[in-house]
Amino acid sequence: MSVSVSVSVSVSDSDSVSVSVSDSDSVSVSVSVSVSVSVSVSVSVSVSVSVSVSVPDSDSVSVSDSDSVSVSVSVSVSVSDSDSVPVPVPDSDSVPVPVSVSVARLGAVAVVVGAWQDGGMGAGGVYVHFPYCAHHCAYCDFAVATPRRVPQGAFTEALVAELVLRGGALGGAARTLYIGGGTPSLWEPAELGRFLEAFRRSPGLEPGAELTLEANPAEVTAERVAAWRALGINRVSVGVQALDDRLLRAADRLHDAERAERALELIAGAGLVSWSLDLIFGLAGQSVADWEATLDRALAFAPPHISAYALTVEPRTMLARQVRDGRVRLPGDETQVRMLFSARERLRAAGYVHYEVSSYALPGHRAVHNAGYWEMRPYLGLGPGAHGFAPPERRVNVRRPRLYIERALAGDPVESVERLDPETLAFERVMTGLRDLERGVELAPDTERFLPSAEAEARAGRLRLEGTRAWLTDEGLRLMDSVLLKLLG
Ligand SMILES: C[S@@+](CC[C@H](N)C(=O)[O-])C[C@H]1O[C@@H](n2cnc3c(N)ncnc32)[C@H](O)[C@@H]1O
Ligand code: SF4
Questions:
Q1: Treating both helix axes as pointing N-terminal to C-terminal, what angle do 257-268 and 222-230 enclose, rounded to 10 degrees?
Q2: pLDDT for 448
Q3: Ligand 2, residues 137, 312, 316: which to mutate, most atoms within 8 A of Cβ?
Q4: Which of 21, 223, 308, 453 is most exposed, with minimal Cβ within 10 Å?
Q5: Short-list 66, 52, 140, CA closest to 105
Q6: Neighbouring residues of 185: CB distance < 8 A, sequence distance ≥ 6
Q7: Whose CA is nearest to atom 7 of ligand 1?
Q8: Phi, psi of 50 (to 5 degrees)
Q9: In this structure, which ligand is nearest to the CA of 138?
Q10: Whose CA is nearest to atom 6 of ligand 1?
Q11: CA of 487 to the centre of ligand 1 (A)
């Protein structure tokens, strides 16, 4: 009985490298020219059963001169004595299989044949990234561009193209839709409406689905809010950051406190199902008393949900350079921790549940979409730099908006697909699950190995452990990074 495996790699227009191997199941090919790669694998057993795996056109990648490509295919066929070989073949002869591509700047491009079609995404959420902003804030490391004119039409078209391409992967209507940025409040309502119309056609929204739009105070006007409501947006999240002009200037924000408060008034009176505001603590020149004053001013609007983020110095930002050069001095870790606990105390006293490390909600107003991330639910990410997660795979789109538009219109906006191994998935599940202060995280069955260290952390008062479920205590919240290190290390 003979088994033959053939792999063909087509390089640029018509160059091709083909390798044929007998009785062997592993092939590796290196190519060191500028290539557009498409891989097709066919396995044939002498009894004319054939499985062909084709990679869609859209999974192609450009590689620079010095990159190399390696392809490895593992095929195992067990053959019985008889000439008839039971090889499971799906209904259709040709199965589209995604290709996971990770590009290291000067290294190799590894192409691994994966199985995107393993199970759907269930009732997943959808994240849409609108990348344009009026100004790039010094602390921000999100995928952002600040063109003089936002290419509204081209961007919407690209997004709809990606929706058509990927919407089916959701396997049904979306449970939540979150339009984040960037500054989605800059999206012209007519264009946003065009996108939402396409979205409602396919994949659709579950009845009562949470539909959030992030807004910056500058664009919150009565007309815009009415237009959003008319389009079905039922939750708005406003980026306030601080209600103090000195701190807003220091944080490099465009708006002042008065503009932010006008926006909050409009949103609070708009009759939305829910709304939220974002605050940042640990800003340059901010004292605990300043932070508490911002909290009190924000509470006057009775927001159903508040996100309070500790300022993170992201390495590639202007803020990181300013801190490095000594031009900006930030409050120390101790002060940040005091700010976290003063928010916890103040907001709890006002009736909020501190349900996630950075999130507070009045009863019934937990952020459904964000909770999906902490619960490791599948979600689809659309737009530049957007991430999507369909266990065990994570996809990331190209980050630069202009390139995204080009690539989405050409049918391939994906930059990389990473297939997470069970160990990494379990690790991430515990890391994100512990952020949920209300529900905690289950340490079984896939993460039972963390139980002995969880018991030690519980004895030290940093975790509460009931059976195999763990929660951060106040002390654990204070020392969260070290708890995670000890637990998972
Ligand atoms: C990406 S922004 C988009 C929202 C909107 N463009 C804005 O700036 O208000 C979402 C939220 O992330 C938070 N954020 C962004 N960069 C941060 C950082 N370096 N540290 C802490 N929070 C940050 C801010 O609170 C912001 O409102
Ligand atoms: S914080 Fe918001 S407004 Fe500022 S650059 Fe980032 S996304 Fe744009």
A1: 40
A2: 86
A3: 137
A4: 223
A5: 66
A6: 213, 214, 215, 216, 218, 219, 220, 224
A7: 239
A8: -130, 140
A9: 2
A10: 183
A11: 29
Spans of all domains in the chain: 3-113, 125-374, 426-489
Q: How far is the CA of 312 from the centre of ligand 2 (A)?
A: 14
Q: How many angstroms separate the alpha carbon of residue 107 from the centre of ligand 2?
A: 32
Query: What distance in Å separates the CA atoms of residue 346 and residue 343, rounded to the nearest whole number?
Result: 5
Q: How far apart are CA 446 and CA 326, in angstroms?
A: 46
Nearest ligand for residue 213 CA: 1
Amino acid found at 376? M
Q: Which amino acid is located at 398 in the chain? A: V
Q: Which residues of the chain have pLDDT under 70?
A: 1-123
Does any ligand 1 atom lie closer than 6 A to the CB of residue 241?
yes
- Please identify, by atom number, the ligand 2 atom nearest to the C-alpha of residue 181: 7
Ligand 1 within 6 A of CB of 143: no
Q: Answer whether 176's CB lies under 8 Å from 372's CB.
A: yes
Q: What's the pTM?
A: 0.77
Element holding 478 (H helix, E strand): helix 474-478
Pick one of 1.10.10.10, 3.30.200.20, 3.20.20.70, 3.80.10.10 as the CATH number of 125-374. Answer: 3.20.20.70
- Which two tokens mark 389? 């997660």
